[in-house]
Amino acid sequence: MSTEIKITKRLILYAIGLLLAAVIINVNMESHIWVLNSSFISNSLLLTLIGGVCTGITAVIVEKIYKYRLDKRINTFAIFQLSSLLYAELYYWHCNINELNDNREIPIPENIFDNKIPLIRNYINQIASIDYCVFWGKDKLMVEQGAFKSTYFGQINKMLLDLGYFSRGILENRIEKLKGNMENLTDEYQVLQILDKSILQCMEIVDSYIGVIQIKDLQNSWEQQKKYLEGNYLGIYSVGTTKEFVERNS
Predict the structure, then answer these.
(1) Taking a C-beta distance cutoff of 8 angstroms, is the pair 226, 106 a contact?
(2) pLDDT tens digits, residue range 82-130?
(3) C-alpha–C-alpha distance, residues 177 and 238, integer Å
(4) What whole-number distance in Å separates Cα of residue 109 and Cα of residue 41?
(5) For the chain, N or C: smaller number of CB within 10 Å?
(6) What is the reported pLDDT for 241?
(7) φ/ψ (deg, to 5) at 187
(8) What is the 8-class DSSP label of residue 187?
(9) Domain positions in the chain
């Protein structure tokens, strides 16, 4: 979008310049300040040529503006869709941690984060790559998009990297158990609580990011989606355990 906007603005300047030239030539023809009437060129010919070029450029400008409006809406919807999916994955992580913390008899899956990290990293990469711009100045979404690229992306990526401490902690605990050093075990629930704080911060970032989208239908849709997420969490073992899977398929 940014490149298209620059080209459109340049075309507008060209059109204004040609329009001024046409006005000057027309005034010259009326006042006879400079009579240009040779066998090769004349004021009338110049006026016709400039008028034709100006008309062509104006048609291109109209097409560029239409494309800009279309691209702006497409990019806005893309930001909304990707951010909604990102928020949902973060929310389910948060719910999983809460469930494990409240029901400590439930075994903690070692891959509680692993299978979703590539997906979330893909979401933030796609969001950061969206070239959202407005024609004049900056709207709230453009400011937030800039903040996402410069700040939010790094914060979410850091959170994803920090999730590695959980898997590392499980491996370290196994090693300590083999050595018989039970007093050196890391509290896995404490690690989860620390990570949950980072996840909640990222959820707030994404929620605020979506909140600046100034399309009423999308805002209503987002409120409905959040209610759906909050009311449809099924549990960390909602699909059943491996033992249940074997029993169902044997």
Answers:
(1) no
(2) 999 999 999 999 999 999 988 888 888 888 898 899 999 999 999 999 9
(3) 30
(4) 83
(5) C
(6) 61
(7) -75, 105
(8) -
(9) 2-238
Residue type for position 139: D
Closest CA to 141 of 70, 210, 65, 219: 210
What is the CB neighbour count within 10 angstroms for residue 148? 24
- Give the chain's residues under pLDDT 50: none
Task: Report helix, strand or coil for 139.
Answer: coil
Distance CA 210, CA 204 (A): 10
C-alpha to C-alpha distance for 159 and 185, rounded to whole angstroms? 23
Up-side HSE of residue 124: CA atoms within 13 Å toward CB? 26
In 3D space, the residue among 159, 236, 146 whose CA is nearest the CA of residue 204 turns out to be: 159
Q: How does DSSP classify residue 216?
A: H
CA distances from 99 to 49, 189, 196, 233, 241 (A): 74, 11, 12, 11, 16
Handedness of CA 123, 128, 131, 135 (dihedral sign): positive
123 C-beta neighbours (distance < 10 Å), count: 22
- Residue 129 tokens read as 């790559």
